[in-house]
Specification:
- By secondary structure, the chain is mainly alpha-helical.
- The chain has one domain.
- The chain is built from 4 helices and 2 strands; from the N terminus they run αββααα.
- The chain has a two-stranded antiparallel sheet with strand order 1-2.
- Helix 1 packs antiparallel against helix 2 and helix 2 runs antiparallel to helix 3.
- The longest helix is centred in the first third of the chain and has 29 residues.
Length: 149
């Protein structure tokens, strides 16, 4: 049984945490390492990531992941394992995506690090939300056995 309110409040908190993770990762890349974060922009070109856009994309990704997790919790037999595997694959694709275009290699590595940090935050926090929002149903009662002497 899934407590939808608890799951979605965890999803909203995850969206906020994920946007904050993107903010911190971008600030570290630009401020500490002095590297621009280069993201794909349409026709195989890369653009320097804007802070607001990156935070918004991260928050939307967390909300979409919450919807996917909710669907799995209601329908799948091992929902958290399936969710973790799927998010890991999507994170790998997002981390490798910047390497498909041009641009400085350091910026591509920084974009991959940001994608990995966002994906790990989504996966970890939503697994915690799923664990706290699911309750195991008790088995149905057994029929009473007739008295035998």
């Amino acid at each position: 049984m899934v407590d939808s309110g608890r799951l979605w409040s965890g999803g909203m908190a995850t969206a906020l945490a994920t946007a904050t993770t993107a903010l911190v990762a971008l600030l570290v890349a630009r401020g500490v390492f002095r590297v621009g974060v280069w993201l794909p922009d349409g026709d195989r070109s890369l653009v320097d990531a804007s802070l607001g856009r990156l935070m918004l994309i991260s928050a939307i990704a967390a909300l979409l992941a919450t919807a996917f997790l909710h669907t799995l919790l209601v329908t799948a037999s091992r929902p958290r394992r399936l969710f973790t595997g799927t998010v890991a694959l999507i994170t790998a694709v997002a981390a490798l995506w910047p390497f498909g275009g041009g641009g400085p290699f350091a910026g591509q590595v920084a974009a991959a690090a940001v994608a990995f940090a966002v994906g790990a935050t989504i996966c970890g926090l939503l697994n915690v939300a799923a664990a706290s929002s699911t309750r195991v149903r008790p088995p149905p009662p057994r029929p009473a056995k007739p008295f035998q002497s």
